[in-house]
Structure formats: structure tokens, C-alpha cells
Design a protein that fits this description.
Blueprint: H1 2-15, H2 23-30, H3 35-47, E1 51-53, E2 59-61
Antiparallel strand pairs: 1-2
Length: 62
Amino acid sequence: MPSGVKTKIYEYLTQNKGKEFTAEEIAKAIGADKVAIVKAQLTRLIREGKVEKTAEGKYRAK
């Protein structure tokens, strides 16, 4: 299941390129129940170089 969440997160961020979102906002937007899962997947996407975390603790697509 989490791999599907990761795909949804990445698709959402790339569709909204240039915009920044909190993990909570992303979870709500993709319909994820648990913010912790979204945060874990965001960490993986950051490691893969697809997403970056801003100084404000928000996330955006690279």
C-alpha cells in the first residue's frame, strides 16, 4: 500500500509544481488516512532526489 501512496504524493506535487505543501496538506489532498505514512514516503522521495523540503518544513517537487 505505501508504494501507491508514494506515487500519489509525487504526482500531486508535480501537478502543483512550484507550490509548497505541509505533510498534512498532502495527506488530505491525496486521501491518505495517516500523516505518518505520508511523511515516511516524503522522506523516501527526498532521498531519491524528486522532492525537496523547504526551510518552513513544507515540501515541493524538484
